[in-house]
Each structure stands twice: as C-alpha cells, then as structure tokens.
Amino acid sequence: MFGRSRSWVGGQGKSKSIHSLDHLKYMYHVLTKNTTVTDHNRNLLVETIRSITEILIWGDQNDSSVFDFFLEKNMFAFFLNILRQKSGRYVCVQLLQTLNILFENISHETSLCECLTPQLLSH
C-alpha cells in the first residue's frame, strides 16, 4: 500500500510483519521516547507516523486489537502534541496526510469516533 518492505527486525533480531499489533507497540515505544520534535528525530517521527497509519488501516480490515491498542494508549494525543509544537512543515504535513488517509480509509466509523471523541471532549 505504501511501497515499503513488509517486514521489520524486532528486539531479538527476528523478522516480523510490519502489519501487526507487535509493530504498533514498537511504534508506540518510539513515540513515547520522542515526545518533543527536534532536528535529530524529525525523520524518525515522520516515518513512525507513516508506519502507524499503515498499521491502523491494515488493522481496521484485519485485526481489531490494533485499533484497540491505539485507543487504549491514546496515541492520537501524541499526534496532537506534535501538531501543537513548532515542529516545522515536514512533520505537520505528514500528520495532516495521516489524518486524511485515516479518515478516507478506516471503514469502521465507530473506530474514528472513538479515536476523536476523547480529544474533542478535552478541549
């Protein structure tokens, strides 16, 4: 879908599918370690956001536990936190593309509502 390879190397050197809950958990770990956008982590964050988008769309069609994890960890709040920073055009464009892709491709409307509702209520 996004033209990337279909596997990644996990913590113990095993090749794993990038379309999995395990990979989303890894991406969450990356987000938690990079909450502030810097020149050093800008590319990493863009790739992480892109990967999360791909996993969420795959999960919407194949594994509901993926979106459940995304909601449980309130990962959307990380996206909003990044948007609130003066992180530069590169990161903001990726986030806006991500939101657009999610809104266009998530087939379960309740998934999107569950994702957005806590954010809308907090403001």
From TrEMBL:
Domain FPL: 49-117
Gene Ontology CC terms: Golgi apparatus; late endosome
Biological process per Gene Ontology, one example term: autophagy
Annotated keywords: Autophagy
Entry-linked Pfam families: FPL (PF09758)
Protein name listed in UniProt: FPL domain-containing protein
UniProt source species: Albula glossodonta
